[in-house]
From TrEMBL:
Membrane-traversing stretches: 6-25, 97-119, 149-168, 180-202, 214-235, 247-268, 280-302, 314-331, 343-363, 375-396, 425-444, 456-481, 509-530
UniProt GO molecular function: cytochrome-c oxidase activity; heme binding
Residue ranges constituting the Cytochrome oxidase subunit I profile domain according to the UniProt record: 280-554
Location of region: Disordered: 50-72
Protein name stated in the entry: Membrane protein
Gene3D superfamilies per UniProt: Cytochrome c oxidase-like, subunit I domain
GO biological process: aerobic respiration; electron transport coupled proton transport; respiratory electron transport chain
Domain of life: Bacteria
Protein species of origin: Undibacterium terreum
One annotated Gene Ontology cellular component of this protein: membrane
Keyword field: Electron transport, Membrane, Respiratory chain, Transmembrane, Transmembrane helix, Transport
């Protein structure tokens, strides 16, 4: 079978499957309930905003900012049913409180470790002789420590902590088997500490995203398996008939990641060109089939809950899920353009990369339509401000990634800092921003305590937005100029290096501001966990309307 036939068959199969799925949605074969988007709400909650720990006056102010109250009056029986559901929700939150706290605490610790390692390695790019007395402080090792602390520390701990908290709410039952998750988190973190220690002393497997020695990876596998048990147990004991789209995303992510991690770490299974192909298959898919679904699951839960409006199009949310599953698997091959790999493999990757516009546009349209008329709530809700911005960054990073896969663009950006900027746009601008927002929503429920210093939430937001803007714009510009210089045969290679120096310095400036924002966030997290600071009676909102609500003690 020739290359053209293979590509055409793959394309036709994907498109056929997609249209069959769209037809099934139109016929409602997947869900006979036209109100599937409302399952995350209790009776009478639609039209009511939700922000943790808010007083009645503050909720009234936030309610006004989101438009008129569209709730219908409830009779006595409906009110009794609502109170029963709210009590069950409270029990569900209590069942996850300690488990989620363990995961989120670990996430914050790894965020700080990764930030400091990343900032130090960034400075070394324009100050190469800085801190070179110790081998583990050299760029090659420190940058790898940064990557792994993010990939296996901050990102999964934050995502799993948020997922464990959401799951009982979505299934309207208590978490079952939380002790397995706590034990799994301990083993996972022990493996990560051992893995980073191995990298620091010069022991690693030599593959990006897979540097931790496979012998140590066994601990992460065991830990991850234990974490998955309570998610399965709770799902089996659900009290809902319909599985909301967030469950689809979380369940798929927790199914995909073990397969990716196992195949990527089997020793001696991949060699030569096949190993490089597997490396980018894993590296890209761990972002698109684990971090991305977990973040999208959070967006589809928190955004409607905060504004009190179901997602605009439930069918679009499912379309986004299934097209992500259909098209993302072979995207990573575009990192091998120009390498000694089969041409059909690269071409297939480019086609799949462009097809990723379908799930991205589906999500983007859905988010915008859901937020239509409610954008004023961004002024008041810290969760919403982070999550909506993160959703916008998902759109931007995915569209940029699709076009970056085209050979004409890839010729310039390959092997440059442009690719680094793009990777951070996805994992930081999208995923991390969404996780920040989720943590601001979840922690008051976990701790039964408010964020003590609302101004620190605003400071955190503006610091990371400013820092990341400098970081991304600087690296994107410098990376493009670097690529153009490398393509110019009349220029020596060192010109492509020297042209990036000002932009690498801007990267360090942006990274320093982002790290400061992370330190502010970590301090606020610890203060809340220890219940330091003033005790307030209202929610940790970014602003309050004068005459509508007052933050006591703020």
């Amino acid at each position: 079978m020739d290359t053209v036939t293979i590509l055409l068959s793959s394309f036709i199969l994907s498109i056929t499957g997609l249209f069959v799925f769209i037809w099934s949605l139109r016929k409602r074969l997947f869900d006979n309930n036209v109100a599937a988007a409302t399952v995350i709400f209790s009776e009478g909650e639609i039209g009511q905003v939700e922000e943790p720990s808010a007083s009645p006056k503050q909720m009234e102010g936030l309610q006004k900012s989101s438009g008129p109250d569209e709730r219908q009056p409830l009779d006595a029986a409906q009110k009794a049913h609502l109170q029963e559901e709210l009590l069950e929700r409270l029990q569900a939150d209590r069942s996850t409180a300690f488990v989620s706290f363990v995961f989120l605490s670990c996430a914050v610790v790894w965020l700080i470790v990764a930030s400091l390692a990343g900032l130090t390695s960034s400075i070394k790019l324009h100050e190469p002789d800085w801190l070179t007395q110790q081998a583990w402080m050299t760029f090659g090792r420190l940058r790898t420590i940064h990557l792994n602390a993010v990939a296996y520390g901050w990102a999964p701990m934050a995502a799993l902590g948020t997922a464990i908290w959401m799951l009982p709410r979505l299934l309207k039952t208590e978490l079952i088997g939380g002790r397995f998750a706590v034990l799994g988190a301990m083993i996972w973190n022990a493996g990560l500490i051992a893995g980073l220690g191995c990298i620091a002393v010069g022991l690693n497997d030599g593959l990006e995203w897979l540097e931790i020695p496979w012998q140590v990876d066994i601990l992460i596998v065991i830990g991850g398996s234990l974490v998955g048990l309570p998610l399965v147990f709770t799902l089996q004991n659900r009290r809902v008939d319909h599985l909301y789209v967030s469950i689809w995303y979380m369940g798929a992510a927790l199914f995909w990641f073990p397969i990716l991690f196992l195949i990527g770490n089997v020793p001696g299974l991949h060699i030569g060109v096949e190993q490089a192909t597997m490396n980018w298959w894993f590296g890209h898919n761990v972002l698109g089939l684990f971090y991305t679904p977990m973040a999208l699951a959070s967006v589809y839960y928190f955004l409607p809950k905060i504004i009190g409006r179901p997602v605009q199009s439930y069918n679009l949310s499912l379309l986004g899920f299934w097209t992500l599953a259909f098209f993302y698997g072979q995207v990573g091959g575009h990192h091998l353009i120009g390498g000694p790999v089969p041409g059909w493999l690269v071409t297939l990757s480019i086609v799949q990369s462009m097809m990723m516009l379908v799930p991205v546009i589906s999500f983007s349209v859905n988010q915008h339509l859901t937020m239509r008329g409610k954008f004023a709530t961004l002024i008041y809700s810290p969760t919403l401000r982070f999550i909506v911005l993160g959703g916008m960054m998902y759109t931007l990073s995915s569209i940029q990634g699709s076009f970056e896969a085209l050979r004409a663009v890839n010729t310039v950006t390959h092997f440059t800092h442009f690719t680094v900027a793009h990777a951070h746009l996805g994992l930081y601008g999208f995923f991390t921003m969404v996780m920040f927002g989720a943590i601001y929503f979840v922690m008051p429920r976990v701790m039964s305590w408010e964020w003590p210093y609302p101004k620190l939430i605003a400071a955190h937001f503006w610091l990371v937005v400013l820092g990341f803007s400098i970081y991304f714009i600087g690296l994107t510009t410098g990376g493009w100029l670097q690529g153009m210089a490398m393509l110019d045969a009349s220029k020596p290679f060192m010109d492509s290096v020297s042209v990036t120096i000002p932009y690498l310095k801007s990267r360090s400036v942006g990274g320093a501001i982002m790290t400061l924002g992370h330190l502010v966030f970590a301090y606020h997290f610890v203060a809340m966990a220890l219940r330091y600071g003033p005790r307030r009676t209202g929610a940790a909102l970014l602003h309050t309307k004068p005459a509508a609500s007052v933050l006591v003690g703020a």
